[in-house]
Design goal:
It holds the Pfam family GerE. There is one protein chain. The chain is an alpha/beta fold and 217 residues long. The protein folds into 2 domains: 140 residues, Response regulator (Rossmann fold, 3-Layer(aba) Sandwich), CATH 3.40.50.2300; 61 residues, Arc Repressor Mutant, subunit A, CATH 1.10.10.10. Helix content is 52%, strand content 13%. The protein has 10 helices and 6 strands; from the N terminus they run βαβαβαβαβαβααααα. Strands 2-1-3-4-5-6 form a 6-stranded parallel β-sheet, with helices on both faces. Helix 1 links the parallel strand 1 and strand 2.
């Protein structure tokens, strides 16, 4: 990830768009464009191919799911383009489609559950780095909606660890949340990779593949 990652912001409400722009700029991002409509977002994504984009779901002209539909369309043409979705609620079908290409670099946060700037900026950085940043409520909806269960071989503790991986937690953060050592987390993650048939490669990629299996994409 570059020293100042290039970012596109897509939000139809001016005050929130301006606030996101200032927040990201203050934390080391270069906001190359901030837009308020779906067509503007599509143009910005295709022109800039940014290191990360923060995208509202509901944007003009339809004010339904314009932002998410544009993000999906552009990612089909530019696989792996990093997208962090901000939404008032879980669009289950579209969230699955965003994850379906297996490329990672996807986040889905609910606006009213982002509690501070550090939490948000950390999520943006994880997505820009090729990882995932999923709100626990989004994870719960996707897992419940998954008819098949690729995780039957995992223990309850391994599922718990994998759920925190899906949120984007590091091994150290998982250890803190579950109150055991970082070494124990490492053993659990190794078991998860083995049981899911994820072969040795870059650790970030293995985590993304495990998360995608967890979400049933």
């Amino acid at each position: 990830m570059p020293a100042r990652p290039r970012c596109v912001v897509a939000e139809d409400q001016y005050l929130l768009r301006d606030g996101l722009t200032h927040l990201l700029t203050a934390h080391g991002f270069d906001v190359v464009e901030a837009v308020g409509t779906g067509p503007e977002l599509e143009h910005a994504l295709r022109e800039h191919r940014p290191d990360v984009s923060v995208v509202d779901v509901r944007m003009p002209p339809t004010n339904t799911d314009e932002g998410l539909q544009v993000a999906l369309a552009v990612r089909r043409d530019l696989p792996g383009l990093p997208i962090l979705v901000l939404s008032q609620h879980v669009e289950q079908l579209y969230a699955r489609e965003l994850l379906a290409d297996g490329a990672g670099a996807i986040g889905y946060l609910l606006k009213d559950r982002v509690f501070n700037a550090d939490q948000f900026i950390d999520a943006v950085r994880r997505v820009a780095g090729g990882g995932t940043a999923m709100d626990p409520e989004v994870i719960a909806k996707l897992v419940v909606g998954n008819a098949s269960d690729p995780l039957a071989a995992l223990t309850p503790r391994e599922r718990e660890v994998l759920g925190l991986m899906a949120e984007g937690c590091s091994n150290a953060a998982i250890a803190g949340r579950l109150h055991f050592s970082e070494g124990a987390v490492g053993k659990h993650t190794a078991n998860i990779f083995a049981k899911l048939g994820i072969v040795a490669s870059d650790d970030t990629n293995r985590r993304v593949l495990a998360v995608l299996a967890y979400l049933g994409s």
